[in-house]
Amino acid sequence: MKRSVIRGTGRFLPSRCVTNDDLATMMDTNDEWIQQRTGIKTRYWIPEGETVGSSDLALEASKKALENAGWQAEELDFIVFATLSPDVFFPGAGCFLQTKLGITDTPALDIRQQCTGFIYAMSIADAYIQSGMYKKILVVGAEVHSTGLDKSTSGRDVAVLFGDGAAAVCVEAVETENKVGILGTILKADGKFAEKLMIELPGSKYPERINEEMLKTGGQFPIMDGTRIFKLALRKLPEVTREILEKTGMTLDDIDLVIPHQANLRINEAYQKTMGLPDSKIFNNIQKYGNTTAATIPIALDEVIEQGLVDTQSSTVLFLALGAGLTWAAMIYRFGE
Ligand code: ACO
Fold first, then answer.
1. What's the gap in Å between 224 CA and the centre of ligand 1?
2. CA distances in angstroms from 295 to 24, 141, 196, 264, listed in the order given
3. Domain segments of the chain: what residues?
4. 197: Cβ below 6 Å to ligand 1?
5. Which of 118, 149, 157 has most ligand 1 atoms within 8 Å of CB, for mutation?
6. First CA to last CA across the chain, in angstroms?
7. Atom 11, ligand 1: residue with shortest CA distance
8. What's the pLDDT score for residue 337?
9. Any ligand 1 atom below 6 A from CB of 3
10. If you compute the radius of gyration of the chain from its CA atoms, what whole number of angstroms results?
11. Atom nearest to 324 CA in ligand 1
12. Which fold has domain 2-175?
């Protein structure tokens, strides 16, 4: 049977490290609040005043992933680009990335599943691979949040959380009877919470997508009912974990490492406690990067491989995410072949 196997990973973080003290010069916040409530110490933002899109960050990450896989960009059959911060309203960032990679004709699909973007994107790659349509797929998660945040005190609940960054993985179709690659996926969405976390403007539903008056409402910045999302995460992440374990016929003992989305360290700590996981079985890096949304899980994956925290011949990992939409998802991946 056809299995979707990761051949290479790569990440790219912009050079500008922004500390909590740096944020305190822009808005009424402080290092203690941010660390206590979120776990975040630093995040990376694109250089101030420069024109850098998500596709630019994605390009650097993709070059590393391709090199790691030993692939040329020309070999790619398909690109899936997950982002909530595309370079422009349209076309998708995947098209910009494709041309920056120096290739033509390769189909490129953007998806907008926010923090769950990487898992949704991997599931799309997996479906194309299993159908036999494509063999070599580049899956990318990339975000430039920093140019879209309200950095005044009124936006502080959201602005302190987000970082820019990108990561990519090369996924290949492998014909094998072994249980390797993507072993199971569960995708979920509940649109009744859509307005609990969103950027409203520009909005095609309005007679004018954006104008001076609309800008005064601040609808061009993200808004979030943080407490609501927090509570949903505490319930849904364990739920979807149990569901995927049941679906794949596994138990938590079969999972070597949980790689969860990084929205808030407290969410991941509560999840760890609920599931009874030892520290060695869950990976967190929110302290360094903040929430990089669609880029978070592939950045973490690239780091755990680099740090030798997984055996790339045999480890089984669980990807887990929840975010705007509301969307949430889980995927079990086994290294090997
Ligand atoms: N600095 C200082 N004080 C702040 C800040 C800040 N940056 N932000 C908020 N506060 C204040 C509030 O004004 C409030 O003050 P008050 O008590 O005087 O009213 C107080 O701190 C507590 O605010 P809460 O919102 O209750 O703080 P909470 O502990 O809930 O933490 C947070 C807020 C971090 C946003 C949390 O709710 C959270 O992480 N929610 C989930 C986020 C998430 O998972 N998002 C999904 C992924 S993102 C995506 O999909 C794009």
1. 9
2. 25, 4, 21, 15
3. 2-175, 181-334
4. yes
5. 157
6. 13
7. 157
8. 83
9. no
10. 19
11. 50
12. Peroxisomal Thiolase; Chain A, domain 1 (3.40.47)
Residue nearest to atom 2 of ligand 1 (CA): 29
Find the mean pLDDT for residues 43-63: 97
The residue behind tokens 């390797």 is: 180
> In the chain, where do the E strands start and end?
2-12, 16-19, 42-45, 78-82, 108-111, 136-143, 165-175, 181-189, 197-198, 223-224, 257-260, 316-323, 327-334
Residues 180, 196: Cα–Cα separation, whole Å: 37
Cut 0.90: pTM above it: yes
CATH topology of domain 181-334: Peroxisomal Thiolase; Chain A, domain 1 (3.40.47)
Distance 329 CA to ligand 1 centre (A): 23
Catalytic residues: 115, 261, 291
Hey, what are 11's tokens? 């990440």
Structure tokens at 61: 């990450």
Longest CA pairwise span in the chain (Å): 60
Phi, psi torsion values for 219, nearest 5 degrees: -65, -10
pLDDT in tens, 162-219: 999 999 999 999 999 999 999 999 999 999 999 999 999 999 999 999 999 999 999 9
Q: Are 2-175 and 181-334 in the same CATH fold? A: yes
